[in-house]
Design goal:
The protein is built from nine helices and twelve strands. It is an alpha/beta fold and 276 residues long. The chain has two domains: 52 residues, Spermidine synthase, tetramerisation domain (Spermidine Synthase, Chain: A, domain 2); 217 residues, Vaccinia Virus protein VP39 (Rossmann fold), CATH 3.40.50.
């Protein structure tokens, strides 16, 4: 695939197309088709089953925003778990935080990790950090087997299809509640409010029934459907809007700032209506 166009059908009626310089890697793992292509506008791009996972150009938005609002809401995020996220971007942001002592990556497909190490060194650069523990395992099973362990859990999943469907279930969020310590919190990526209204509403209300504090926040990720992306936080104790702005750690970010920490939770009325 050189000088051709890659097109992802993001919904039945919506697509995104990028012109490709060349295909760098293509394989079928035990779980999915893994592709790495080099695009003209967004650089190297990881695809799983033909769906865009991350690109060199805009990855920092997603990886900072799935990680840092949670890490800076919890006053002592010493022990952090990432479910999914085999590209290593969330791990990169986590280990930069001064209060993190251990970061566990639980990725079901070890080939995603290996391909990312080879072709996305800017993103996967911290997977060999001494703070990091890598588990090639089923995240759902890991949560089921874990109790009262983590300060923060991040669900860095693919879209809710195939093996990722269970990562969007109420039972899974209940398991996360039990895997967290008494003051723990979690964040999950929860798709676009333009095209996934029902999913966002369901997840937010499931989380709200389980956690004392539930918050939705937004960020702009150009290569994800519609570019407007949501994240849902469930917290046992700490409110992200009550964080001391002056205590937010400077981790050399490109998108997230102390001001954005708060403004991301300031939802437009149409999104507020989705969550009720």
């Amino acid at each position: 695939m050189k000088g051709l166009w890659f097109t992802e059908l993001q919904t039945n009626n919506l697509a995104i197309s990028l012109k490709v310089k060349e295909t760098l890697h293509l394989e079928k793992s035990e779980f999915q088709e893994i592709s790495m292509v080099d695009t003209y506008d967004f650089g190297r791009m990881l695809l799983l089953d033909g769906i865009i996972m991350t690109t060199i150009k805009d990855e920092f938005v997603y990886h900072e925003m799935i990680s840092l609002p949670a890490l800076n809401t919890h006053p002592s995020p010493k022990n952090v778990l990432v479910i999914g996220g085999g590209d290593g971007g969330a791990i990169r942001e986590i280990v930069k935080h001064p209060k993190v002592e251990k970061a566990t990556l639980c990725e079901i497909d070890g080939q995603v990790i290996e391909v990312s190490k080879k072709y996305l060194p800017e993103i996967s650069c911290s997977l060999n950090d001494p703070k990091v523990n890598i588990l090639v395992a089923d995240g759902i099973k890991h949560i089921q087997e874990t109790k009262n362990t983590y300060d923060v859990i991040l669900v860095d999943s693919t879209d809710p299809i195939g093996p990722a469907v269970g990562l969007f279930a109420k039972e899974f969020y209940q398991g996360i509640f039990e895997a967290l310590k008494d003051d723990g919190l979690f964040v999950a990526q929860t798709e676009s409010p333009w095209v996934n209204e029902d999913l966002i509403s369901r997840i937010y209300n499931d989380v709200k029934r389980i956690f004392p504090i539930a918050k939705l926040y937004l960020a702009n990720v150009p290569t994800y459907p519609t570019g407007l992306w949501s994240f849902t936080m469930g917290s046992k104790k700490y409110d992200p809007l009550k964080v001391d702005k002056g205590q937010i750690a400077d981790t050399n970010t490109k998108y997230y700032t102390p001001d954005i920490h708060f403004s991301a939770f300031n939802l437009p009325p149409f999104v507020q209506k989705i969550i009720g």
